[in-house]
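Deliverable D4.2, example record:
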Amino acid sequence: MARYTGPKTKISRRFGEPILGDSKALQKKNYGPGQHGRGKKRKQSEYAVQLAEKQKAKYIYGILEKQFENIFDKASRKKGVTGEVLLQMLEARLDNTVYRLGIAPTRRAARQLVVHKHILVNGDVVNVPSYTLRPGDALEVREKSKSLEAITDSLATQASKRYNWLEWDSSELSGKLINLPPREDIPENINEQLIVELYSK
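Output generated by the structure prediction step:
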């Protein structure tokens, strides 16, 4: 299964944000990676800025190029503001929802839980991280997986992070996608309009 497996710190330093999870290196080295990382930054072209925003979104959600293009294509065909619809589709992915519910500490970890069949959707095992949830869909941790240390540790540390568009039952380790989140509720630092402009060329 294709996904980015390279160095997380390098990516985080490139964008100056811990986009692949907490990165202590950003505190020590708050400049870009590579031998020219400390050098004076050149002004980027409009295209470079748009491309960088798309790359950032891809890394945040753990999606490769072709898959991202397909999601954007679907978003552009739907009613509504394309950029907002795009982010809603990314948020509705199963791996992202498992992460948002606190079942896993990162999207990478959430992807692993899904692939290894620890998650049920509407009572059935779904092991496809890109599976798109619809409002009203319920997901839960499989009964035999509820005692997994990775899950219990994550829930203990992420308990305070809750989102308006998700419902969570801590006693049953189950949740529900209530609705697709409006843009103002999505916490990711992404300028989706730049992505729309990039694909519009």
